[in-house]
């Protein structure tokens, strides 16, 4: 059950942040100033500074409230029909994708319709708050939220930016596109099968509330520390994000990074972590499962010529698991386990309009005949490649309707070498499958205004 909830939580909060027109109106800068491809989470150094300083930078020319909206639609084709849509495994059949009109394959979907508050609140306080209607799950929820208070100072001859972030998703406040909240792929199909195992740091979007203190020293060293706790059951349901798991006490989160820009060659290296004691069963608080995620990441951006931007990003998370509660309930054969997740992606962007990105992901971990009983190797092993091409016609200073409108078209293909245990498996209906049966073609269009 723990593995299932990790996978479902990732699907529930899947989505992407955008180059919000409200940010562009507030700063007087085009979306391309903050976003490498003029749309989507990928940030330039200026974009990272804007977020670091609390979303408050303004040229003082716009008196409009910092509100934006997004509509995102898609088409999904998988190599083999998705058996979970043909015959849903969910206990309430009225909530199944099949009964909501989706086919086993070749589906058009309204991925999401979102309303954002993005910008300055008052003084040194700013916010990024997203309310999302998920058209696939037919669910309205409070999505990624990051509320900040930030300021600048000089201390002992060192220039500091310091602040506090109040947010609802560990790493949603992060400045680099390497952590679970904003890592590549920035958008993916909600109607395709995805690997079932993933580090727990990425599975709590919307269910936790937390605060972290941070500082950037001399635009070189970044330090952050904070903690998260579970919202109450009623609060989660009111926000549309209920998860039966509960974090016992506080779950610490930390982040350290070193960055430097040499004449348009930007580098960063960092380490981040998250530790949580989790009650997997809402009716049994005798034992907890303990998860410790330790991650390292690195980023390179070539920005010396903005007509030709190159990026390389990578991360690796090692998760140590003590599944005492799951084992005692019969859900795992052994308590001490590990899960490893590696991600690497490279991209090229021409004139911040045309982009191509190639990604590689690998998931591995301890063999367990109970926890991974549905995987043919009894391991969480998955490996896949992602290729994506995108076109963003707007978002520049001289664009049509700037800064009121932005648009992105993308085509993405995901190819699996391994899926939930190996290159071959058995689906829930008992039919033998290949990993490549889950290969996915995903066409996506996003409009923000």
Topology record:
Layout: H1 2-12, H2 21-27, H3 31-34, H4 45-52, E1 67-78, H5 83-86, E2 107-122, E3 125-134, E4 139-155, E5 158-167, E6 208-217, E7 221-230, H6 233-238, E8 246-247, E9 251-262, E10 265-279, E11 289-302, E12 308-322, H7 324-328, E13 336-350, E14 354-365, E15 382-391, E16 406-418, E17 424-426, E18 432-434, E19 440-448
Antiparallel strand pairs: 1-2, 1-19, 2-3, 3-4, 4-5, 5-6, 6-7, 7-9, 8-10, 9-10, 10-11, 11-12, 12-13, 13-14, 14-15, 15-16, 16-19, 17-18
Verbal overview:
By secondary structure, the protein is mainly β. Helix content is 10%, strand content 46%. A 16-stranded antiparallel β-barrel has the order 1-2-3-4-5-6-7-9-10-11-12-13-14-15-16-19. A two-stranded antiparallel ribbon has the order 17-18. Strand 2 and strand 3 form a beta hairpin. The longest helix is centred in the first third of the chain and has 11 residues. The protein starts with a helix and ends with a strand. The N terminus is likely disordered.
Compressed to H and E, one letter per element, the order equals HHHHEHEEEEEEHEEEEEHEEEEEEE
Helix percent band: 10-25%
Shape verdict: globular
* Strand order in the largest sheet: 1-2-3-4-5-6-7-9-10-11-12-13-14-15-16-19
Which percent range describes the beta-strand content?
over 45%
Summarize the structure.
Helix content is 10%, strand content 46%. It is built from seven helices and 19 strands.
What characteristics describe this protein?
10% helix; 46% strand; mainly beta; two-stranded antiparallel sheet; 7 helices; globular; 449 residues
């Amino acid at each position: 059950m723990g593995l299932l909830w990790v996978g479902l939580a990732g699907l529930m909060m899947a989505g992407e942040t955008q180059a919000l027109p409200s940010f562009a109106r507030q700063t007087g800068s085009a979306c391309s100033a903050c976003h490498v491809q003029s749309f989507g989470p990928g940030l330039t150094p200026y974009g990272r500074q804007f977020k670091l300083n609390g979303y408050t930078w303004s040229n003082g020319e716009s008196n409009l409230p910092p509100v934006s909206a997004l509509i995102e639609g898609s088409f999904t084709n998988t190599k083999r029909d998705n058996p979970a849509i043909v015959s849903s495994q969910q206990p309430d059949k009225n909530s199944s994708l099949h009964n909501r009109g989706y086919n086993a394959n070749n589906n058009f979907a309204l991925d999401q319709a979102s309303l954002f508050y993005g910008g300055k609140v008052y003084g040194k306080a700013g916010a990024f708050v997203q309310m999302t209607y998920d058209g696939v799950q037919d669910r309205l929820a409070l999505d990624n939220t990051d509320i900040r208070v930030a300021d600048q100072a000089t201390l002992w001859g060192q220039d500091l930016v310091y602040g506090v972030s109040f947010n609802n998703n560990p790493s949603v406040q992060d400045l680099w596109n390497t952590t679970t909240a904003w890592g590549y792929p920035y958008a993916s199909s909600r109607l395709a099968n995805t690997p079932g195992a993933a580090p727990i740091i990425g599975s709590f979007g919307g269910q936790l509330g937390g605060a972290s203190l941070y500082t950037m020293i001399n635009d070189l060293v970044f330090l952050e520390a904070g903690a998260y706790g579970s919202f109450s059951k009623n609060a989660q349901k009111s926000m549309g994000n209920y998860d039966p798991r509960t974090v016992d006490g506080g779950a610490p989160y930390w982040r350290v990074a070193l960055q430097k820009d040499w004449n348009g060659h930007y580098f960063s290296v960092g380490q981040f972590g998250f530790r949580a004691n989790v009650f997997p069963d809402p009716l049994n608080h005798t034992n907890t499962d303990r998860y410790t995620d330790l991650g390292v990441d690195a980023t390179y951006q070539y920005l010396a010529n903005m007509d030709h931007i190159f990026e390389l990003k990578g991360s690796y998370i090692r998760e140590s698991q003590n599944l005492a509660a799951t084992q005692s309930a019969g859900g795992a054969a052994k308590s001490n386990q590990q899960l490893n997740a590696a991600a690497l992606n490279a991209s090229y962007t021409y004139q911040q309009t045309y982009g191509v990105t190639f990604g590689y992901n690998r998931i591995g971990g301890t063999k367990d005949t109970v926890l991974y009983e549905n995987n043919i190797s009894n391991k969480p092993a998955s490996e896949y490649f992602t290729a994506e091409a995108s076109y963003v016609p707007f978002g520049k200073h001289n664009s049509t309707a700037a800064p009121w409108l932005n648009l992105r078209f993308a085509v993405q293909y995901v190819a699996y070498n391994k899926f939930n245990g190996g290159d071959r498996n058995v689906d829930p209906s008992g039919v033998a499958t290949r990993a490549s049966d889950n290969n996915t073609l995903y066409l996506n269009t996003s409009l923000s205004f």
